[in-house]
Amino acid sequence: MTPSSVAVPTRTAPPPGEALPHHRDASTFPKQLRAMVEVTNVARELGLMKKARWFYILLMSVLGLALAGCVAGFILLGQSWFQLLVAAALGVIITQFAFIGHEAAHHQVFNETRSNSRLARILAVGVVGLSLSWWDNKHSRHHGNPNRVGKDPDIERDTISFLPEDAARSRGLVRWINKHQGALFFLLLPLEGANLYKHSFAHVLGRGRVERRWTELALLTAHFAVLLVPVFWLLPLGMAFAFVAVHVSVFGFYMGASFAPNHTGMPIVAEKAKLDFFTKQVVMSRNIRGGGWASALMGGLNYQIEHHLFPTMARPHLARIRPIVKEFCATHNVPYTETSLWQSYGIVVRYLSEVGLAARDPFGCPLAAQFRRV
User: Fold this and answer.
1) Of 24, 28, 41, 175, which one is least surrounded by beta carbons within 10 A?
2) Looking at the predicted structure, is the pLDDT value of residue 367 above 90?
3) What would the DSSP string read from start to end of 258-314?
4) Where are the domains of the chain?
5) Which of 192, 161, 164, 179 is nearest to 259 (CA)?
6) Cβ–Cβ under 8 Å, residues 250 and 92
């Protein structure tokens, strides 16, 4: 699937002196807005907007036991290279906690906002080692404008370029990476963990406004002290560095592999395009087939369309609202994209390769790149 730029004509304002229409019920709403209201009403009637506190408590208990098992394994193995298996397992467990932190930040766990925020901060900062303030700001902007140029931070230029114009402007090592970023995609994923940590510390230690800066600094310090002190105290230096490298690489690979299929390769929205909420959340998102196993593996991110439509809906309810959303999309001719996990990776790699063509062109001509893809 080749992304395209979505541009929708701006609605004209009413003539001077003419009042704006007042929408008194769903039947008078614009078509797609009416669809969103109707789907929301169905979700409420089915009880799908209720929180799933016990689901998350049970899940965190299981992950807590798994974490305790890693600690026990670390102590029992001693100075053995089998410790790298513990490091890998720890990376998987930390990523699962990150999923729950993401859901708590979306207020999916508890009814009380304060309880959700407290849990999100403990998990994201204390357990995972990422700044919640940085993540929340970035992720909220993404949800407001997925895949919109100049609005969605997830498609802003970084090591990987998601827009041809960004690839064309890259220089040095980054330009070389952009040229080959499709082929290098899976090799770059393990570096995502270090990239997330870098952004977190840059945000917390920066001069900008940081919500609960000192709390986050204390939790980040505690996280890395608990992780690094035992590793470098009990293991030989080379083994300790290998342990940390494996842990961070598995964490980064798992996080990147879970988030990349959500929007990469879906349509890119022009900066000034006007889209209704329902359309922009559905058309720019991709679901992953697989049901329960995919939801467990990806922390509910496999239901990306439903998550974007209902960001406060708890993970267990997303599967139930999916067929309803899909039916409404069919009724209102809104594209609903759903693929297998492997197909999604193929789409991501092809898209990144196409974007990377701009870095190969010494003039960075978007028109030439467009004709080259045809």
Assistant:
1) 24
2) no
3) HHHHHHTTSPEEPTT----HHHHHHHT-EEES-THHHHHHHTTGGGHHHHHH-TTS-
4) 39-153+186-358
5) 192
6) yes
State the pairing for strand pair 286-288/337-339: parallel
How far does Cα 277 stand from its chain's mean position?
A: 19
Q: For residue 312, give both structure tokens.
A: 């406060």
Joined together, the tokens standing for residue 264 give 């990469």
For residue 28, give Cα distances in angstroms to 12, 31, 35, 310, 331: 18, 9, 11, 22, 17
Per DSSP bridges, beta strands 337-339 and 5-6 are unpaired
How far is residue 359's CA from residue 368's CA, in Å, rounded to a whole number? 12
Q: CA 177, CA 185: separation in Å to the nearest integer?
A: 10
Supply the pLDDT for residue 26. 47
Does 142 have pLDDT greater than 90?
yes
Separation of alpha carbons 364 and 169, rounded Å: 7
Beta bridge partners, 337, equal 286
**What's 148's DSSP letter?**
B
Q: Which tens digit of pLDDT belongs to each residue from 56-84?
A: 999 999 999 999 999 999 999 999 999 99
